[in-house]
Write a structure and sequence with these properties.
The structure is a homodimer of 293-residue chains.
Chain A lengths: L15 E8 L4 E7 L2 E7 L2 E8 L4 H11 L9 E7 L4 E6 L6 H5 L1 E3 L7 E3 H9 L8 E2 H13 L3 H5 L3 E7 L2 E8 L2 H14 L7 E5 L5 H9 L4 E4 L5 H10 L2 E7 L2 E6 L4 E2 L26
Helix pairs in contact in A: 1-6, 7-8
Chain lengths: 293, 293
């Protein structure tokens, strides 16, 4: 698969808006800000939720949301996805009506940049997942991935206030999704994988955000054994990663990174000293969200 | 009221945990990470939700959550708050049982670092709120606040991966709350204000995070007319701020800031050139989450 098979389109005028403001000198300034628009999701005839999203890839977002909420299973067959841009509505149709009412009963709000809710059986599936112990991450891949992702054109660089998630393989970023809510970016990737029948084998997940419990749960739910971020860790995220034997790497910037779980998958194949530092203009401040100083 | 009447306690050992990891050279490293622990909230006899929080101020968090979810109104009398540290349970008791079932019917997931759900009548109350048009923000206050907040001891500086919110008055930070989920930090402040009968008059709200729709909605719901962040904006956040006549200031760092709504409350009483830059070690990278480059 090619690098950036799917990538942000900063030139898509629907995704940003120019607004006029006043700066610290009192002078008028025009700036671009990322758009949030509502998207109401229906599963068959049932209204599930209204999400706020930048609005690209409503189809992938809808499917990924249902998957990550365990309202849709790998076994479910999607017979159609209808998106009405005027109504901001997306309808996912399945061959067999899924019943998930019970899943809505018990919910836990997750912390961090979270859609906010993890359903009971997400934890149950967490217990069952077996991440590939044979998967490897060469440090040369890690350095190449972060360099490519940080310099790729993005809404973040164009307007800020947005999060990114990237599905990668070896040293290649494959699918790069952004959204105001990081949970949407993750869900868009999960939806894209499901619809394109791309499995987690050999995949690496990169996020600009913190390695919270929810990030770890979703990455494990997707079956991806390696999770990388420039940002920091939370204790529960680390604990869950260790339980699931997920390789968890944070604070990955320039030559530096810190691995707090699954270090046995790391292959140190390059001298960090040989890795160039980051050009300041390419530093993803957004990606440094909550990173330890 | 004194500066930092309430402030983070980085030395509270319950809030961080030391974990061992492996760095980019393959060397073992010990680092501190912020703890997330579950807190199950009951309103009277009804279980509402389980939140993930760092666990300080469960009482303020519980009340603030109920207020910001409109499950509790200013008119409701709290007769007791019981917190069981072993069970991670907090129970808020009210004189009159509140009924909010209908509020749970229609929900909208917000983007950004959101608990995730804004109930129908949060938007309704948004329509009703009148923010004080006479409130003012001197730029000298803004510079003093950001300097004091950035240099105050915090879990962010100690362990990262955490968000902060600060209730301020003129040039004084009054209450500084942090949590893994920014929505928790906001709710803790809302709870503290309610329980200490501190009103929004003359208050200024500071957040380390992005100025999303949810941040604006919550600030307006709290009746605070001025919202400041070092981070970036979203289009809907700006639109809502303009509707509510909220003064919205983002990208506030060093001498610079950008006001995208309610600029008429600004009083330029100091020459930005006279404002010292920020020492690198005090730059709140976490606060730069998603900020435009």
């Amino acid at each position: 698969m090619d690098e950036f098979t799917l990538a942000p389109d900063p030139d898509d005028r629907r995704l940003t808006e120019e607004v006029r403001g006043t700066d610290h000198t009192g002078a008028p300034v025009d700036t671009r800000v990322v758009v949030e628009r509502p998207l109401t999701l229906f599963l068959n005839s049932r209204e599930i939720v209204t999400m706020m999203t930048i609005g690209d890839h409503p189809d992938h977002l809808a499917v990924g949301y249902l998957l990550n909420q365990a309202m849709l299973g790998p076994e479910d067959e999607i017979t159609g996805i209808d998106y009405d841009e005027d109504l901001d509505v997306v309808v996912v149709r399945t061959a067999v009506e899924t019943d998930f009412e019970d899943k809505l009963a018990k919910k836990t709000l997750t912390s961090g940049c979270a859609q906010g809710t993890v359903f009971g059986d997400m934890m149950e599936s967490f217990e069952r997942v077996r991440l590939d112990p044979a998967a490897r991450l060469k440090t040369s891949w890690l350095y190449a991935l972060t360099a490519k992702i940080n310099t790729a054109p993005s809404l973040y660089l164009a307007a800020g206030a947005i999060h990114g998630c990237v599905l990668c393989e070896e040293d290649r970023p494959l699918v790069y999704m952004e959204d105001v809510g990081r949970h949407n970016a993750i869900d868009k990737i999960a939806g894209w994988m499901f619809r394109n029948r791309v499995g987690p084998e050999g995949k690496i997940f990169y996020t600009t955000g913190r390695l919270t419990s929810e990030m770890v749960l979703k990455c494990v739910a997707m079956g991806i054994p390696i999770l990388i971020s420039r940002s920091g860790f939370t204790a529960w995220g680390v604990e869950l990663a260790r339980q699931a034997n997920l390789t968890l790497i944070g604070r990955a910037r320039g030559q530096r990174f810190l691995c707090l779980a699954g270090a046995e998958r790391l292959v140190y194949d390059i001298d960090p000293a040989a890795v160039p530092g980051e050009a300041k203009r390419h530093r993803r401040k957004g990606a440094e969200a909550d990173d330890a100083a």
